[in-house]
Design brief:
The chain is α+β, with helices and mostly antiparallel strands. The protein contains 7 helices and 11 strands. It holds the Pfam family Acetyltransf_7.
């Protein structure tokens, strides 16, 4: 491990005890970026990912992503600012259309870094939030029945997923794309067959009111949450969707009381999820559920060019 990485790990440990050691992004095309500020070195890795039309990732953000993994070390906020400036200069003259973005993920508790990112035109669009196993759970009193979903619920689950995705396209990073219903339906089928951790809330008469789709994830090398969560097994809340007509009635709380109980039965370190700060509903709901931001994904759209 380099001295720069050691410095960064020490800073992260002081910021938040739930932050893991830093990890390089799993890409063979990483491009190094190094600057010096006040005699202190700051470094990073640049990655460019292009999502194919009609692919699952393209539903959830721009198709052309330019990402920076920043390691300012002891140079702190000044080093991060210098890295962003050097990144902007590196991209000058590079074609970037409206369906592009620059992204950077940073610990949510680093307020100094937040100020730098805002000054460079980035917006906090997504948070990875965590919940410890000892967080309280309140099922509420919503008049719904929550049960494990099965193959016979495919249409209802797909409709709820589609409603959630459409709402996220208004207040989050989801992007309207052709073929979205088919992709969402295929994802529901995959979740039913491989995780099986999907719960459906029904009102009287069996009317679908909401779903909670979850999974188990291990923060190990090669895994998508490696470098984001402490090592071990975690419960993942992939999607919580409440039918528009049922929102505000406690359906989400009833679903999560069951989902948390079932996930914690697997002896997980905790649970995690992603939510969008601009969403007027989810931040308040998830904080009341015992979640708090660990990482914030910052986005500048379109990308520098």
């Amino acid at each position: 491990m380099s001295s720069l990485e050691e410095q960064q790990n020490a800073r992260f440990a002081a910021l938040d005890p739930l932050l893991p050691p830093i990890a390089a992004p799993p890409s063979p095309s990483n491009e190094p970026l190094v600057v010096t500020v006040g005699g202190l070195k700051a470094g990073g890795l640049l990655t460019n990912v292009v999502h194919a039309p009609g692919s699952w990732p393209a539903l959830w953000g721009p198709s052309d992503i330019r990402d920076l993994t920043a390691v300012p070390g002891d140079s702190g906020a000044a080093g991060l600012a210098a890295l962003l400036g050097a990144w902007r200069d590196r991209l000058r003259g590079t074609p970037a259309g409206p369906d592009s973005a620059c992204t950077l993920t940073w610990p949510s508790r680093d307020a100094e870094a937040s100020a730098v990112l805002l000054a460079h035109g980035f917006a906090p669009m997504t948070c990875l939030a965590v919940r410890t196993p000892d967080a309280p759970a309140d099922p509420g009193t919503a008049p719904v029945t929550v049960r494990r979903a099965g193959e016979g619920d495919l249409d209802a689950l797909t409709g709820l997923r589609l409603a959630e995705w459409r709402y996220t396209s208004l207040v989050g990073t989801a992007v309207p794309r052709p073929g979205a219903p088919e992709l969402l339906r295929a994802e529901v089928v995959r979740a039913l067959r491989f995780s099986g951790l999907i719960w459906l809330a029904e009102e009287d008469g069996g009317v679908p009111a909401g779903l909670a789709s979850c999974a188990l994830a291990s923060a190990t090398p090669g895994n998508s949450v490696h470098g984001r969560l402490l090592p071990g097994l975690w419960g993942y809340v992939d999607t919580l969707s409440v039918a528009p007509a049922a929102r505000g009635g406690g359906v989400g709380r009833a679903l999560m009381a069951v989902a948390h109980r079932e996930l914690l039965a697997h002896d997980v370190r905790g649970t995690f999820l992603f939510y969008h700060p601009p969403n007027p509903l989810s931040p308040v709901f998830w904080h009341r559920q015992g979640y708090r931001p660990l990482w914030t994904m910052w986005l500048r759209r379109p990308a520098w060019s």
